[in-house]
Structures are given as C-alpha cells and as structure tokens.
Amino acid sequence: MVSARVRPWPHSDHKAFLVINGAHGPEMQLPDEPILNTWIQTISSWGYRSVRTSALAPSASSPLERLGFSVSQSLVLLQKSHDQSVPQLAMNHSTHLVRSLPLLSRPTRATIDAILGVDASAFGTEWSLDTATFEEALKATRHWRIFVSRAENRIDGFVLAGVTQSHGFIQRLAVRPNAQREGVASALLTSALNWTQSRRCTNTVVNTDHNNEAALALYHKFGFATLDYGLSVLEKTLP
Ligand SMILES: CC(C)(COP(=O)(O)OP(=O)(O)OC[C@H]1O[C@@H](n2cnc3c(N)ncnc32)[C@H](O)[C@@H]1OP(=O)(O)O)[C@@H](O)C(=O)NCCC(=O)NCCS
C-alpha cells in the first residue's frame, strides 16, 4: 500500500508539499490514475494553489507527469561504496557532534535555529528547510547524526547523516556562503562518512540537483559514483 501525506511547503502556505513514502525507491508503483486524481482534488479542496512532491524515482514520477505535473528539480543520485576508505583530507575545520541518539534530548532550539539559518543562506528561501521538514529529515532514517562546523562560536556548516540497515545517507549538507571553499564541507563529509562506515554501512547515498556543480565535484572527490537513475521533484498548479 502506498501512503502519502501533505503539509505546507516550507515558507509557503499556498504550496502543498506532497510526501509520498518510499517513492524514491526504483520499485515504487503509485496507485491508479483515478486515485491520484482524488489526491489532487483533495489537496486543491484544502485551498492550496499548487503542489510540489518529494523526490520521486522514475516509476513514480511518470504517472504524475501524465496527470500534468512537470519537473521542478532533477536530482542526481550518487553512491559511495564503503569497500574503499574515506579520504582523510587535511582539515582546517574541526567538526563537532551535536546529537547522536534519537532517544536522548534533541538539539536545543538555538542550535536548530542556527542550523536552519545556515540552510537558508546556502539553499535560498525556495529550497530551504523549516523546522517541520528538518524534524521529518531526522525521522527519515533509523539513526541520525548531525555534525556542525563552528568558527568563532558560530555554526558555519552542518551535515545531517542517516543510517537505515546497511545504507548510509547524506540527508543534508550546507555551508554558509561566506565560509565556502575553505574545506568546511570536506571536513563535515569526512565525519559523516566515518560515522556511516563505523555503523557497518555497505554504502552511503546522496542526491543533489543535476546543475549543482559544487556539490557534484565535492561528492566525486570523495569517491561517490553516479547511479544510473535519478530522482525528480514534480510540481503542478492546482485548479
Ligand atoms: C556544496 C557545498 C556544501 C560545498 O561546501 P564547501 O565548504 O565550499 O566545500 P569545500 O571547500 O570542502 O570544497 C571541497 C571540494 O568541493 C568542490 N567544490 C566546492 N565548491 C565548489 C565550487 N563552487 N565549484 C566547483 N567545485 C567546488 C571542489 O572539488 C572542492 O575541492 P577543491 O577546493 O580542492 O577544489 C557548498 O557550496 C554549499 O553549501 N552549497 C549550497 C548547498 C548545497 O548545494 N548543498 C549540497 C547539496 S546536497
């Protein structure tokens, strides 16, 4: 059975965020067209003017494109196998573990705000997280850790990594623009990959926009290889 949920897109009350569980997996099959049409009508009846989806594998995006959705973002999927070691790059930046176990207390409100501030400065308002999507990202995997890089007592970058079974995920990585090209992301990614490897993951996966040259160069430098299928975020204006 396919389950989906709807909430406002971060920082935009008129755009719905349709999260389809498991739809990033290559095997996902969406319900038939009449049911998908019911989803669209229901979201429209709640007053939203448009709807944007979570990242979808091709098997899930095709049926929605036939219903008038168009691609809003094309994502490349990259995977690093852990049969090679993590490159231990020379680091100018120390990384600090913020939280390790979901059962313990969560990051403080001030820390979450600082992380969301870095996220907004790196991704811009349109694609940045709000508190609710940040919390959802924490719940998306069985285990998670956030590493932050601090300079002069200010958070300049963070990475959210997750682990489910033997798979590691880089869920989010962002560095404040005025701290970029100084090795911050390299230091964060090294910590995240050391952690996923220490949890006996066989591989770690990440996705990024197909035009994001900085991120693609970073991941390739760390030994990530592009998978043969990507993901799409779709969008549709509602009647
Ligand atoms: C992608 C991002 C995290 C890189 O952070 P950073 O701290 O500047 O990265 P680093 O300084 O550690 O750079 C490591 C390598 O990444 C690549 N890289 C980083 N920025 C780059 C750029 N603007 N253009 C091309 N390559 C770049 C280079 O290979 C670089 O190695 P080099 O400096 O020896 O050439 C940062 O640009 C960012 O936050 N961007 C916006 C958010 C984002 O795209 N997040 C990742 C999406 S999943």
- Which residues sit in consecutive blocks of at least 5 with pLDDT less than 50? 100-104
Beta-strand share of residues: 25-35%
What are the bound molecules? coenzyme A
In DSSP terms (H or I, runs of 4 or more residues), the helix count works out at: 6
Along the chain, the helix and strand elements come as EEHEHEEHHEEEHEHEE
For the terminal residues, how far apart are their CA atoms?
A: 27 Å
Number of domains: 2
Q: Kindly report the name of the CATH homologous superfamily of the largest domain.
A: Gcn5-related N-acetyltransferase (GNAT)
Oligomer: single chain
Radius of gyration (Å): 18 Å
Fraction of residues in H or I helices: 25-40%
Shape verdict: globular
Describe the sheet with the most strands: 11 strands, mixed
CATH class of the largest domain: Alpha Beta
Helix-and-strand structural type: alpha+beta
Mean pLDDT across every amino acid position: 90
